[in-house]
Design brief:
Alpha-Beta Plaits, 2 domains, alpha+beta, five-stranded antiparallel sheet
Length: 246
């Protein structure tokens, strides 16, 4: 069964921001949804996800776009208007105005594990001393000391992460409109920061990232992505509440 997959929202007057002939616009008053027909039974979710990102990133290079939650599907074009564009028209138009001329730049930092641990040991006498004690004891006898060591290391990693994140923000936040930090889920993760930046300042921001990369290259690997649609800054207000890809 064919359904309509919704990628994002653009202004009605923005023409065709995506060249893909399978992507069309469903227009309602001042806004338009970028959509395509899709058969959920015949495609893998991973393939649809790649297409979703590609369409949004191409659209963002040509127009202001509000990304819609991945996998948002509706019955047909009429449902897109009646269930989404009409009831949320004012919020969507306001969101487009707010994001006009702005893009997301994402910077992720990953610690080089050897460098991270060497720095922690060098800064903490307690960790250095306890590590030496653990190494000299039989494994069973060192059980509780290993737990204590792990707790001390985790606390020091968190302090290091906070210090490095603040260093990055000090360099980059003045060049951005706002920033959002994502929680870290692994020991090696240093930071995951999304910056909302005016298009006119992207080159300057990228230059600052290049300088930062040289500053931290001995202990942090950086992954810099963008310009992107403002994924991290649109929130739930553009969510139509439609069925998602399963």
């Amino acid at each position: 069964m064919s359904e309509v997959h919704v990628y994002g929202i653009v202004r009605a007057g923005d023409g065709r921001p995506v060249e893909d002939p399978n992507v069309r616009r469903v227009v309602h008053r001042e806004v338009a949804a970028l959509v395509s027909d899709i058969d959920r039974g015949g495609l893998l979710a991973s393939s649809v996800l790649r297409t979703h990102w590609r369409v949004l990133e191409e659209a963002a290079s040509n127009a202001t776009v509000l990304p819609v939650r991945f996998g948002t599907v509706m019955a047909d074009d009429r449902a897109v208007v009646e269930q989404y564009l009409e009831p949320l028209h004012d919020e969507l138009a306001s969101g487009l105005a707010e994001m006009d001329g702005k893009v997301q730049l994402t910077l992720k930092g990953t610690y080089r594990e050897d460098a991270l641990m060497a720095g922690i040991v060098a800064r903490s006498r307690a960790i250095d001393r306890l590590r030496s004690e653990v190494e000299k004891l039989p494994e069973a006898a060192a059980y509780y000391k290993r737990i204590e060591l792990g707790q001390l290391v985790a606390a020091e990693v968190e302090a290091t992460r906070e210090r490095d994140t603040q260093h990055v923000l000090q360099q980059l936040e003045p060049l951005a409109i706002t920033v959002r930090a994502e929680a870290q889920s692994t020991l090696k993760a240093a930071f995951n920061l999304a910056f909302l930046v005016d298009r006119s300042r992207v080159d300057k921001f990228s230059g600052a990232v290049a300088t930062l990369r040289r500053d931290v290259r001995d202990w942090i690997d950086l992954r810099y992505v963008g310009p992107l649609p403002p994924y991290s800054f649109t929130g739930d207000r553009v969510d139509p509440g439609a069925a998602a890809w399963a």
